[in-house]
Write a structure and sequence with these properties.
Number of helices of chain A: 5
Shape of chain A: elongated
CATH superfamily of the largest domain in chain A: S-adenosyl-l-methionine hydroxide adenosyltransferase, N-terminal
Largest sheet of chain A: 7 strands, mixed
CATH class of the largest domain in chain A: Alpha Beta
Number of strands of chain A: 15
Number of domains of chain A: 2
Helix content of chain A: 10-25%
Structural class of chain A: alpha+beta
Largest interface: A-B, 40 and 34 residues
Oligomer: homotrimer
Order of helices and strands of chain A: EHEHEEEHEHEEEEEEEEHE
Chain lengths: ~250, ~250, ~250
């Protein structure tokens, strides 16, 4: 089986940085199959990269190598990591982007050596792509560096259970459709409070009337706020961190 | 030969939905070669997806599997389809996006079973990607579901022949260059009327003077309106549905 | 080894033009591995495509075929080229986009035949994709056409050494992060003048304080102007061609 290497960056594609990384991988691991996840992470948005990776990394088969380069601290003393977790591999900076894999029991993380002559501004090309290629050729993470000490882990904030039985959550991310994904675990029955707005929970986007604001259980099991044929984030002024209160019923 | 699976969606890439689909395909059909067509269909623009697919689907070799997920009705009673047509396969919602393949004589369309536990909001991951993987592993469409009854077919509107010999058409799509593609079949000789503007037909974009508005026969055989070194749609205020009249000469 | 074909265009992806090219390549060279470099070159920006290709083309292994289609002159008398250079192949219009490969000693360039029936507006599909597929199947460039006469070569402008020892350069490209890449060769020590602004040279982006404007040696060895956690091009009003003066120290 050809090993899979996925790429997740904030580089866009036009500047050629991603092209350079693909060239390095193709040169050092010609058998690898390169799959783009995204290059449209907003510049330096570590949290967004973490959430995208959380959705994606375990959907790929065992042996897959995920390269995640959203790296505002490139060239500083922040560590470069390789992680083996749940039979997959991940490489990227030690700034939280690899959190989903670092939270798994039994994972193993090492600090990558920065090769002599590596650019101080582009570890994607000179550190992470070569490390991914080495893993694709069969290297173990242990061959790539020494134990990483206390890698940085970010967690999605937990909702707060209030004395009156309601649950206070928040918007974690707004997607391309303007759906606002919250940290509230999906359930049947209940009402959402978003500032002065009251919103009922439905089964699917299509259950709402056109233009209606609804809550639905999204594809990762969390409640999302959507407007049928519209954009919930724009209509309700929602962005990352906006408060959403769930009042369960039944 | 490794089977090809192409992807056409309105998901963008940043949210990771496409990444999840690629993971599911890689897991269930590791031999498949995944090729991106686009993830930049404007959100829920079924018509745009239909036109993009019309251009693309038969350019790929026999055996190719096209996955098209522009799906405002996800989770409603709309059917999920698999289609075998002209030696290619297509999967996607029953909302018109698969029309180009459904119009071919001898095609075969089935209604996909929605697996138990599928997300009500993300059939791309839980219905269409697994169906594409099954086809890549050699399943027939008949193995995937029962006959689809009257799948929805959209057609590009036909131009109208008028008593004075002119032909009234319309703009079907505006491309990235601002070229307005019409439903008027290409021909040599003639003049276009776009509101008060008169435009001559030329052979290529490069024949116009810089800034000149011209009509050319585009790469699918239809007349396009272009501005040399400019943007015709912006200059002339053209969008989908704008009227364009052709006065043939000669 | 499967041959690699990379794609660099200004087509975007939504219109399906790139999809058509991928279909043609898959049909005529089913063993080829297609890798996207970018489809987001600004429409008709030949210079930007040249710079992206300059970064990328030699990062890929010997035998790679690069297809570059940014082609305002399509359908005119401009030549269509295939180039063999430094063990790689490139195909694209004769307008400067292939300059990085044309500047290498011992390169070989031929003028591609335009097949009968080729669209006058889409050589990407009808000329360049078939030529790339032929190269992937093992054709030599000589089999694809006759000697190209004086292909067009663009060069990055050279900085000017001034009598007072300072060096006058300019901004070559602004990247997605707002970093302004100049034509000034990287060095340790010195100060940049950008209009009234004075900027010190640092080792990495991360050395600046948040919001500070700095000069760093970028990943191709040229000096870049960056703002830590900000956008240098926006803050300083920089764009392609903006003057930057280097005053070396030490």
């Amino acid at each position: 089986m050809r090993p899979i290497i996925t790429l997740t960056t904030d580089f866009g594609t036009v500047d050629g940085y991603v092209g350079e990384m693909k060239g390095v991988i193709s040169t050092h691991a010609p058998e690898a199959q390169i799959i783009d996840i995204t290059h449209d992470i907003p510049p330096q948005d570590v949290e967004r990269a973490r959430l995208t990776m959380a959705r994606v990394w375990r959907r790929f088969p065992a042996g897959t190598i995920h390269v995640v380069v959203v790296d505002p601290g490139v060239g500083s003393s922040r560590a470069a990591l390789a992680v083996a977790s749940d039979a997959r591999y991940l490489v990227g900076p030690d700034n939280g982007v690899l959190s989903p894999a670092l939270l798994v029991a039994g994972m193993r993380a090492v600090r990558l050596q920065v090769p002599r002559g590596a650019s101080a501004t582009f570890h994607g090309r000179d550190v992470f792509a070569p490390a991914a290629a080495a893993l694709a050729r069969g290297a173990s993470v242990d061959a790539l560096g020494q134990d990483a000490v206390d890698p940085i882990v970010h967690r999605t904030p937990e909702p707060i259970r209030r004395p009156d039985g309601s649950i206070e959550g928040e918007v974690i991310v707004v997607d391309r459709f303007g759906n606002a994904v919250t940290n509230l675990i999906g359930r049947r029955g209940g009402e959402l409070e978003i500032g002065p707005t009251r919103v009922a929970l439905h089964g699917t986007y299509a259950e709402g009337a056109s233009g209606e604001t609804i809550g639905v259980v999204g594809s990762t099991g969390f409640i999302e706020i959507a407007v049928r044929d519209g954009n919930a984030a724009t209509s309700l002024g929602l962005s990352r961190g906006s408060r959403v209160v769930l009042r369960p019923t039944g």
